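A quick aside before the break. I want you to see a complete sequence-to-structure record at least once, exactly as it would be stored in a machine-readable document. Don't worry about memorizing anything.
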Amino acid sequence: MYKTLFLKLKRHPLLYSIRFRLVSKAVPSDRVESFYYNRLNQKSDIPAIYYELNHLIFNNETTELIDIQKAEKIAVWLRNNIKGGPGLGHSSGKTIRKMVRGEGGVCSDFSQVFNNFCVINDLKVKEWGLKILTDDINIRGGHSFNEFYSKELKKWIFMDVSKSICFYQSDSDMPLSVLEIFNLKKENKKIYFAQFNTEYAIDTRNINDLYLDSESYPFLITNYCNKTYDFFLDRLGFLPQALIHGILILSGKSYVFEFPTQTV
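That is the input. The structure line, written in tokens, reads:
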């Protein structure tokens, strides 16, 4: 009986909706431009399992990679070695272990572990989410993706790790940032996505539904301290996740969902 109740509370949609409202706020666009995950998370905060797997990701490289090549290398390895499944939401070390063992992983789990691989490979990274206003149950729960900074291109670049895509404007081969995508969409400018992982079969209709056809709004996930969340999720793992997140909110240690006003 306790186990059944625990599973119902683990990702209950009502509890998630309440948490979403509590941690969401509108912010100026320059705020989301200046924030990135590495500001709160140092290499020393990343669990050892990431360093061990990082050697597998880059073990055949004999030349130095530019930033976009590093990011794609990480994303391709994750997508090709993790089949995905139920959402996890555990500490970062436990999450990546379960994912490589084939025990689950949804878009938010892919985004979480991608963040940490970027940190140890000296890539500035952000994690984003989508709030989607729709009656379509297939995309109503939203979506998670990332953005990394390319020193060579001197710009932020959108990357959906779980779907292996980047976005471009129709008349350019320069990859777009998150704000560029949604502002161009708002202006009814033509944009398109391109796959960077030939071994993964993408669902074109689902991607169109998420990014192009739906009324969707991006929000940046800020104030996420990996070390803090790992501590609470591991120490209080016997509690429902909703309660753990409630404790983090009340203690002022929770992440925040920041909606840039330029895209709202």
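Two observations worth writing down. The longest strand covers residues 125-133. The beta strands are 24-27, 125-133, 143-150, 155-159, 165-169, 191-195, 215-222, 256-260. We'll return to this after the break.
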